[in-house]
Write a structure and sequence with these properties.
This protein is an all-beta fold. It has a domain at 38-93: SH3 type barrels (Roll), CATH 2.30.30.70. 0% of the residues lie in helices and 32% in strands. The model has no long low-confidence stretch (mean pLDDT 92).
């Protein structure tokens, strides 16, 4: 018997579904942030690159630095500060 896969997107058929009227826009890909900006992590399912884990969906954080095309976001969860690496299409200004 083959063991079932436990990949990053397992069981996310409904969790990562976009709304009926949500459309692809280029502006989310071209968004620029600077250090200490407050952002909200909202994974965009149409872009697989640089997508943060689903457990950080809706979390607010602060931009710490830019790393290539992505940003390092410090998010507090469970009393600890965690670093999330995400591209701009998965971040929204808070």
């Amino acid at each position: 018997m083959v063991k079932s896969s436990k990949g990053l997107r397992t069981g996310t058929r409904r969790k990562l579904k976009k709304g009926f009227r949500d459309k692809f826009t280029v502006t989310s890909y071209l968004r620029q942030f600077s250090e200490n900006d407050k952002v909200t992590v909202m994974p965009n399912p149409s872009s697989h690159n640089g997508m943060p884990h689903f457990r950080f969906k809706g979390a607010s954080g602060i931009i710490k630095e830019r790393r290539g095309d992505a940003y390092l976001v410090e998010v507090k969860t469970g009393g600890k500060a965690k670093t999330v690496i995400a591209r701009p299409e998965h971040l929204m200004p808070a």
